[in-house]
Amino acid sequence: MFSFTARIIARDLSLALRRPADLAAPLCFFLIVASLFAFGVGPEPELLRRLAPGILWVGALLSTLLSLPRMFADDFADGTLEQIALAPYPLGLAALGKAISHWLISGLPLALLSPVLALQFDLPPDALVILFFSILIGTPALSGIGSIGAGLTLGLRGAAVLISLVVLPLYIPALILGAGAVDAVVHGMSPRPHLFLLAAFSTGSIVFTPWAAAAALKISLE
Amino acid sequence: MQMINWYKFAAPSAFYPLAGRMIPWFWCLAALFGSAGLWLGLVIAPIDFQQGEGYRIIFVHVGASWMAMFIYLVMAFWAAIGLAFNTRLSGMMTRALAPTGACFAFLSLWTGAFWGKPMWGAWWVWDARLTSTLILFFLYIAFIALSNAIDDARRADKAGAVLVLASVVNIPIIYFSVNWWNSLHQGASVSLTKSSSMATIMLWGMLLCALAMWMYSIAIALIRVRGIILERERNAEWVRALLAKETSVKEDNAPC
Questions:
Q1: Nearest CB to A152 within list B131, B146, B170
Q2: Is B139 in CB contact (< 8 Å) with chain A?
Q3: I want to staple A92 with a disulfide (CB 3.0 to 4.6 A). Which of A211, B42, B122, B255 is the partner?
Q4: B233, B242 contact by CB (below 8 A)
């Protein structure tokens, strides 16, 4: 059963690695958005340090959003998705594979890049570590919830805008908890409550969202 | 003994006349409860010793907030029925309810801001309950945007249903937010298990106003669902017959 999921992950990864430019685009976007805020609010270190957790997390959300429309679109366009739906495995497992590969392509690099960006904002070292972990733990939820939005808007005109309308309200808990964890460290408190809740949110999302995404895909494929 | 055949009214053609007959009743109930509630709230109820006249906003605010949450639950109910039994009417009901729910969510935020300015000194605070109600408003907008973006009505219904069911978790979060987080928003004043922390007369005014909004929501949703039924079934035999009848009646009444 899970070999099916693993196959889908391997296939998506090899497809993504053959187009490195597509991989890099959301990361560059993350970089630019984070810098834009510094340009916008001015270079005062105190203010930037205060804003950094929120800015970096919002940047990560937006970059994730940017790569969501592609999650199923190419497979839908060339008919692969229909073949996957016809396979003798639950479609939820395929959706799980898609979400995991999306996380490996978008969430993991974002987490790796975030401490570097946080240096620009003069975050203290222990906050850098927590920022990395909060984005690492939080992005699976973003990919999972995003897979529902991507499935629902598959093949629609204006899909990219619709995805943000559908998905962003559902991203808010991850944003609050993730940015809250970093904020707690900056203020000298323990980030553990935030991180544990974020981990719970992510785990729950990974368990439940593939089935909702599969239902959405079935509707879109009808 | 089966008194009512529910399956019969799952057909839009059977539900259309039934809704038409029910609408005036719900309008009457809404007017009745509304006038009684407003009379109790605005005329009879005494001035609050802490909040002065300003507290009277609750007669709109509480009912609107309840309805905003409740309508989302009802939408989730119809969405689940629609996905489970593949009935057409469920999707139409979900879509008919959404604009009313969005309006109530907006009304709740707006009246809350009017109340917050004199009481808290701020139009808006980033508080758990306010924020989660704002998310609810966004969710209504997302549902309306998604179902309007899909041309195929059946697909729009089902996609909307999946979205509503996936996001209905927000409702308990709003409802319990004042208990879970330290919030500027006051805790629940009304509870089923213990006696209310409000004066009886205010409580009755508030409940009557909430009932009026409930009845109004049903009436307006039924009107909207009748519109949706006519639009979707415009090529069906019964709609043509209905239209032919309506136009002939109008021609009979027209002055010569």
A1: B146
A2: yes
A3: A211
A4: no
